[in-house]
């Protein structure tokens, strides 16, 4: 038991450390994860202290800790903020059951301390009420979360998997509480109470450890993507983009194809190719994929790489990266306008990644090229925005 608790507490502390280390790249949704991890660590630390210092005390029968009542609500807040729809009141509502239960929890703890380990008569009422709260919260919230995950943007695919895993595990706990509640109503389970209590605690501690490990995996993967992988990918693409820009400049944007080129391209339906690509960009939003390349777009449009490049150069007078990143900038501005109209917090970096950009620097570069100013300057010119950071 103590081994599982220590593992879980260590994982929670590690995940919390990773989040705090990369704080400058964190959004509001990462702050929700910090609250969740801090709660898990506190929960496991208290459980470890009880097991070490009062291993045989009857206080262990007070197994419905108040802290765990916040977990499903905080996970719900996480996906709300992931979609930029969360508000501060959501966090307060998520914590309310835990705050209310903490009053009863510490009241019981004070009674036990003052009466040499004896349990108060009202502990049964506390366990009954908190047990019903567990059942409701660990069923309703996970079902809402699982129904909502399909609306999370594609960019957050790792976060989406983590949320689904956590919600499924929480739902399992909720169903376990429901079964125990029904079983208690139908028959006397006092004989099996200690065994049920032991296994339930083992399951919950194991689940918390798994959730902490999944958060570590997501945050480490995101950290590597932002700080290592994307740098290796962005450099050659920017060089390629600059090379294409130089070609455009040297040949002139209004350059007319030669007679030889006209003859070679006579059988190519460039208008049809452009229509396919515009449909992929505007209707299917393929530009949201950060790994989108000329080859991938050509495959999706069912045309050759060369013909796609020629289409963009001749009919749009843009290189592939200019064309794609302008769509991404428009997507970011659309998101800004949407959150502005709702009075919600704007996290520029999160929106840039959501729109398909690889890094903050490339996003700022293209934003300035398209809009004529930096993202910060654009927002500061509009005081009704709630600016987080860039």
Automatic annotation (TrEMBL):
Name of the molecule in the record: HTH araC/xylS-type domain-containing protein
Signal peptide: none
Keywords of this entry: DNA-binding, Membrane, Transcription, Transcription regulation, Transmembrane, Transmembrane helix
Superkingdom, natural source: Bacteria
Keyword DNA-binding (UniProt): yes
Gene3D superfamilies noted in UniProt: Homeodomain-like
InterPro entries named in the record: Homeodomain-like_sf (IPR009057), HTH_AraC (IPR018060)
Domain HTH araC/xylS-type: 271-381
Transmembrane segments: 32-53, 59-79, 91-113, 125-141, 162-183, 203-228
């Amino acid at each position: 038991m103590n081994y599982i608790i220590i593992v879980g507490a260590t994982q929670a502390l590690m995940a919390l450390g990773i989040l705090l280390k990369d704080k400058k790249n964190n959004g509001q949704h990462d702050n929700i994860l910090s609250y969740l991890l801090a709660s898990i660590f506190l929960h496991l630390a208290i459980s470890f202290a009880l097991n070490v210092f009062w291993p045989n005390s009857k206080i262990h029968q007070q197994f419905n800790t108040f802290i765990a009542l916040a977990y499903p609500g905080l996970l719900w807040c996480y996906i709300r903020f992931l979609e930029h729809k969360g508000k501060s009141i959501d966090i307060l509502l998520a914590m309310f059951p835990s705050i209310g239960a903490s009053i009863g929890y510490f009241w019981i703890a004070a009674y036990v301390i003052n009466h040499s380990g004896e349990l108060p008569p009202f502990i049964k009422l506390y366990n009954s009420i908190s047990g019903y709260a567990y059942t409701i919260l660990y069923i309703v919230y996970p079902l809402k979360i699982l129904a909502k995950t399909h609306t999370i943007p594609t960019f957050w695919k790792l976060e989406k998997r983590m949320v689904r895993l956590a919600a499924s595990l929480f739902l399992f706990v909720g169903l376990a509480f429901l079964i125990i509640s029904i079983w208690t109503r139908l028959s006397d389970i006092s004989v099996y109470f200690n065994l049920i209590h032991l296994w339930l605690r083992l399951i919950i501690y194991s689940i918390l450890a798994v959730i902490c490990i999944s958060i570590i995996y997501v945050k480490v993967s995101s950290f590597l993507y932002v700080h290592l992988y994307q740098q290796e990918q962005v450099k050659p693409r920017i060089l390629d983009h600059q090379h294409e820009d130089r070609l455009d400049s040297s040949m002139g944007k209004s350059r007319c194809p030669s007679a030889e080129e006209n003859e070679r391209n006579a059988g190519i339906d460039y208008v049809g190719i452009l229509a396919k690509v515009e449909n992929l960009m505007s209707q299917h939003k393929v530009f949201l994929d950060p790994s989108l390349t000329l080859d991938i777009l050509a495959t999706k449009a069912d045309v050759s790489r060369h013909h796609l490049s020629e289409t963009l150069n001749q009919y749009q007078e843009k290189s592939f990266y200019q064309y794609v990143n302008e769509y991404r900038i428009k997507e970011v501005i659309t998101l800004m306008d949407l959150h502005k109209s709702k009075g919600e917090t704007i996290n520029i970096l999160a929106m840039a990644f959501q729109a398909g950009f690889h890094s903050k620097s490339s996003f700022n570069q293209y934003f300035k090229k398209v809009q004529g100013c930096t993202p910060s300057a654009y927002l500061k010119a509009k005081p009704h925005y709630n600016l987080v950071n860039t």
